[in-house]
């Protein structure tokens, strides 16, 4: 089932943001994909920013991007990378599945899905036993930054940035979906004093038991 996401404003600004990411974020993207192999499902591929960084041991990537304007750019990116990448307009909730995947990759996407708990349960079901969930996500911060995130989430931020919610406890949701977290850490990609709700990212690896 293909379920289009019509977000023309975000589709205009995200390519600009993605092509001007800091080197710190690019390094975290590469680390998030390091060591993967086999068949991989990528959720919310955007314009295909991850595609050049997949290791040679990955023999197939199925990349979901339901926003048609972004998906068109992702397909163009897929055509010029060594990895075998197929871009689909399906959402995680409606994805038809097929053979189980060896890994699922989420990069700056779980903040924007409408039902993160349901999406994570679906991703769990699409992995083979022992398969990995790799995630690089916006994460709820503590203290003053957390208060800023809650204000941003309750006002204009989700409307401007494709339903992005910056104050989600993503790792708790990952565990509650049945995954076992192997490693995770938080990283600031902007100075800690910067008044931005998305300065702190969570990088981690979890697996389906």
TrEMBL record:
Pfam families on file: Methyltransf_23
InterPro entries in alphabetical order: SAM-dependent_MTases_sf, Thiol_S-MT
Coiled coil: none
Classification via Gene3D superfamilies: Vaccinia Virus protein VP39
Name this protein carries in UniProt: Phosphatidylethanolamine N-methyltransferase
Organism from which the protein derives: Mycobacterium seoulense
């Amino acid at each position: 089932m293909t379920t289009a996401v019509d977000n023309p404003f975000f589709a205009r600004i995200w390519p600009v943001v993605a092509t001007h990411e800091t080197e710190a974020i690019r390094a975290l993207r590469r680390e998030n994909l390091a060591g993967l192999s086999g068949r991989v499902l990528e959720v919310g591929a955007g314009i295909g920013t991850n595609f050049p960084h997949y290791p040679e041991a990955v023999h197939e990537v199925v990349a979901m991007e339901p926003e048609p304007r972004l998906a068109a750019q992702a397909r163009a990116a897929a055509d010029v990378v060594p990895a075998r990448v197929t871009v689909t307009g399906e959402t995680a909730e409606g994805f038809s599945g097929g053979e189980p995947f060896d890994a699922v990759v989420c990069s700056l996407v779980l903040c924007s899905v409408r039902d993160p708990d349901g999406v994570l349960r679906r991703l769990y079901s699409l992995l083979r036993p022992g398969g990995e969930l790799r995630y690089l996500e916006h994460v709820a911060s503590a203290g003053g930054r957390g208060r800023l995130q809650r204000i941003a989430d309750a006002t204009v931020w989700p409307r401007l940035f494709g339903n992005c919610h910056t104050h989600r406890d993503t790792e708790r949701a990952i565990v509650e979906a049945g995954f076992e977290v192997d490693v995770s850490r938080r990283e600031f990609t902007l100075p800690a004093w910067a008044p931005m709700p998305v300065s702190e990212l969570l990088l981690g690896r979890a697996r389906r038991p």
